[in-house]
Design brief:
This protein is mainly α and 1072 residues long. It has 50 helices and four strands. Strands 1-2 form a two-stranded antiparallel ribbon. Strands 3-4 form a two-stranded parallel sheet. It comes from Anser brachyrhynchus (Pink-footed goose).
Amino acid sequence: PVPDFQIRRLSTLRISGVTSKDRCYEGIENLSLFLILSIERTQALRLVRKMITVNASLFPSSITNSLIAVGNDGLQERDRMVRACIAIICELALQNPEVVALQGGLNTILKNVIDCHLSRINEALVTTVLHLINHPKTRQYVRADVELERILAPYTDFHYRHNPDTAEGQLKEDREAQFLASKMGIVAAFRSWAGIISLCKPGNSGIQSLIGALCIPNMEIRGGLLEVLYDIFRLPLPVVTEEFIEALLSVDPSRFQDCWRLSDGFVAAEAKTILPYRARSRPDLMDNYLALVLSAFINNGLLEGLVEVITSSDDHVSVRATILLGELLHMANTILPHSHSHHLHCLPTLMNMAASFDIMKEKRLRASAALNCLKCFHEMKKRGPKPYSLHLDHIIQKAISTHQNRDQYHVQKDIFILKDTEEALVMNLRDSQVLNHKENLEWNWNLIGTILKWPNVNLRNYKDEQLHRFVRRLLYFYKPSSKLYANLDLDYAKAKQLTAVGCQFTEFLLESEQDGQGYLEELVKDIVHWLNTSSGMKPERSLQNNGLLNTLSQHYFLFFGTLSCHPHGVKMLEKCNVFQCLLNFCSLKNQDHLLKLTISSLDYSRDGLARVILSKILTAATDSCRLYATKHLRVLLRANVEFFSNWGIELLVTQLHDKNKTISSEALDILDEACEDKANLHALIQMKPALSHLGDKGLLLLLRFLSIPKGFSYLNERGYVTKQMEKWQKEYNLKYVELIEEQFNEALTTYRKPVDGDNYVRRSNQRLQRPHVYLPVHLYGQLVHHKTGCHLLESQSIVTDLSYTVRSPMLDKWEGIKQLKAALWALGNIGSSNWGLNLLQDENVIPDIMALAQHCEVLSIRGTCVYVLGLIAKTKQGCDILKHHNWDAVRHSRRQPWPVVPDDMDQLCNELSSIPSTLSLNSESTGSRHNSESKSVPSSMFIMENDRFGSTSTSTFFLDITEETEQIFYDRPGPSKDKDRSLFPFFSSSRLVKNRILNSLTLPNKKHRNSSDLKGGKLTSSDSKSSLRRNRTVTEPSSNIDFPDGEEFNPVFRHYSQPKSKTASYEPLRSK
């Protein structure tokens, strides 16, 4: 055995510190990493780490060799120290890359990428190499076209064998493990600017190798590559099946998710997924990132490769490839500019295969089937996400009826054509089977729902005994005491239909006035009695132990919600003591699920007891209930509940002072989203809330006050603006870089932000589906929304100082790189409005930013420039400036109904071209209608893309034009004549797309009639609307854009939405 003094000696050396080579070698004599004693080896590794911390530049190559030896052969020798040694090699590579590279350490790191199946470790290994590639000083140690491309080998080399000694019987298992590890490494590489630029450079790049492998008929390789692509684009992976519809349903955003259960996130979680983010002008930087990656793959032939996979693969592979093709075409149509619409040629290629008899029959049939499948996919995307639960559907339908003066509540369309006659009513009462027998579930519930919604039919107008008998039987079925409806399971096939009819039944009784009051009162009192008897202080009497979680009894709260939407219904609820009953539950324990149902069901559009109940739960309930009630305020905000600014903002401000930090943080996040609407921002300023106790996030919310003159005056009078200008110049501009890059880390990697008071870097294996990175608030970005703020920036020469930093960057040190990033983000925020854009134009700094984006040696700076140019292109003026320098931009809103086709884009551009956008700071107007991005153009989605990421050809950016109208998801479906409209060219009536299809099919040219041509010399209605639209300005957009016949859009739901030390943690799209 090794004497104990050797262990103590190593420990003493580590604790005392190692400051010279002599003392290093003093410990090396007895430092053998292959010693049997694990305690001594542990002390030796600790000493090695201490040596790196004290002075990595003096780290001896002999110890490096020992570490590398364990890293290379440790897995085969089953050495338990192999991961520790690899971690130390990565740490040393960041501090002293020369000693690691010269001893072959990078080769060891990349070799272990294919051996590692844990995403967090795999990610750290890959990003160590990417960190070196990012900077020109360390890039020399990584061999171009060799090192990073090694992670692609399992997919691109069919004879690849990672370990030559692998037995034949284990080859399949070993290959699957290599696919998994390689996939993790490839995805991690595409999460970094260094990785993207390295793998997508011109010539024989890694991306071309991946796409080329798709064209080789190997089902194992194809299936693995499809999973890689789904991961890269953050798309949900369909189930493995040969049935397209089954696979399509598995990726439907409206499909039920476990976190939507009553016992979990319930309606608050569902709404956060289904309902779109309220921001109209704030950019989602993830759109920029995805657009860049998508453009790179499309330019390298991905769509053509997918067509080959679809037409020549096994059914389960073909199904996945078809869905991926549809997802990418949808994404491209949304976030890529029209000038990059060459991807539309993909589907004419598929049509050629489906229509040609010169190819094999099997391939032709597969192509034809793929077209039908893409049509189904198109319809799903066109429809958009729909509420799954009746509770969320109830909230949305109520908002629709409020804003559009329509009071309708239905789940499915009527399938019966009814005649408004008494004879027809009697006949349908008979056909509904309600009067014929008491087998409730055998009744014709479609017909029952139709009768209840029949115009002018109620107990007041019809005194017929059969109708009363019909009502009594329905009443008996729905009463809790009958234990019929209430005892049905939630997963019963007709559960939603029965509940929807029950809500219609309560409205029917309500409309019958006094003739139906008795029935309605009997039903409501029976429900109240059931609530009182099924709940109590003891846990065994709580409602969740009486079937609330699993039966339709939880839907009785929807009956209350339906009544609370009507003034007479509110009176009925008061008369039956429903509100008092619910108020009593607020003070009871073990009733969390009941309070969730209460919060999610009541209507809050009118001032009354419903808001009192909500307010009491927000302040007096348990922590979990208060948190859920706070989250429900986000649901009401996104659903655009009427007059939310008058009462909802006040409730959120109250929650900022909750003793639970999670609740106050949630309220702060919701307020940040709410302030995207000027009415909410004005209401918040009027309340003058205290935000200093909320840290940096509270500061950022307070900065939003500066975006309007009223808030600017309020803060300026207290000297706040002057103090903030000083702080941002000294430190906050740098902290802004850390903030935004930490958001990228959380969105793109396994990194998770440490909790309060914990500096430990957390990582998670949970994969986020399509995360969002909305641009944080910046002081300069808020000031440029009005002339006074711009004058302040101009008087302090802010733009001049920032421009100097951009023109004279110090890229040798990480501090200089961070300073440059801070200057770029500041300039981008200033250029996000027309007022600020004029300041950038005066300084002529935009060409310098473009030069950095294309030629900067530090690759992460290129990525920052891409985002900054994206902010500049938020306005039409900025977009035009970029276009002048050959950078293209998307010119449609994030909320424009999908699909977006070129004709509509051109029309929108023509409308905007006549609008002056250049403003002068000498203008007398302080509230320019063209200036604020919330009134002109919203979140921009941008991306830099050269033809092969190395040429000097045109780069692309994306611009969104703001829509100052109601939410898109409140619009009802348009006329049926748009049902054939599609993103895909063969479904579209666009003239441009038609020409492309005809040319691709080599058919005779046909002259297409211009949709604006006059018929018989008369102006059509669509032409008339078009002429009226030309007078609309940028600040007065229309949410319902009219199009020529056959080209209408259906509105859809759209949901979108640092470690400071130099460690091996992943840093996406950035590098120090």
